[in-house]
Amino acid sequence: xxxxxxxxxxxxxxxxxxxxxxxxxxxxxxxxxxxxxxxxxxxxxxxxxxxxxxxxxxxxxxxxxxxxxxxxxxxxxxxxxxxxxxxxxxxxxxxxxxxxxxxxxxxxxxxxxxxxxxxxxxxxxxxxxxxxxxxxxxxxxxxxxxxxxxxxxxxxxxxxxxxxxxxxxxxxxxxxxxxxxxxxxxxxxxxxxxxxxxxxxxxxxxxxxxxxxxxxxxxxxxxxxxxxxxxxxxxxxxxxxxxxxxxxxxxxxxxxxxxxxxxx
Length: 264
Prior knowledge:
There is one protein chain. This protein has one domain: Creatine Amidinohydrolase (Alpha-Beta Complex). It contains four helices and 15 strands. The two termini are about 25 Å apart. Helix 1 packs across helix 2. By secondary structure, it is α+β, with helices and mostly antiparallel strands.
């Protein structure tokens, strides 16, 4: 999620807080796996939202987005040229669509935030390449999260990689601290300068969530709902997101329930 409601300083979490954030992040990650089998042609994005919501509530948690600054749904589901904040509704998925499902859970007062891309039926090679590059952007960003590194290194590496394929990186939305509140410091820009920004220290938790566009980086907000952010040129956009914990060694990807990242 990329709403903005930041606190005034970076919160270094205690061991107890980290375990709470970890459990909420795992729940968010599991929610994405639960909804995956339902993503197919003819299914509405509202139905996908319902599946996610029921799973979250069955696990004694709450969806963080519902009512947040007036947002009307429990998840964000962004299809094709929607960059982020797509509101689930009556849209029926079609063969060739790509979509991002973004889930933030509140479990025992702790927040976990993650999103990933899905494909519907047969997609184009162009769309698959965009998805693959975006996922690699997230991995490269995560690699920068070790003690002594700086926030700006994330955006520097993401932007360098994405633009090498002719893509652009959305700069109007960003990652953010998370865990005790939905949105905390630090702000994680996905276009940044190497060596710039706050220094990473063990106990920091935040999201990295690069949004990569096939065309121009700018977005436009739908006037009708005031939320849906689309690419300004109608070209595809992709996004992946994880909640990260800085440790004494390598980063701990708290929302990684598929074992894609090594544990410290």
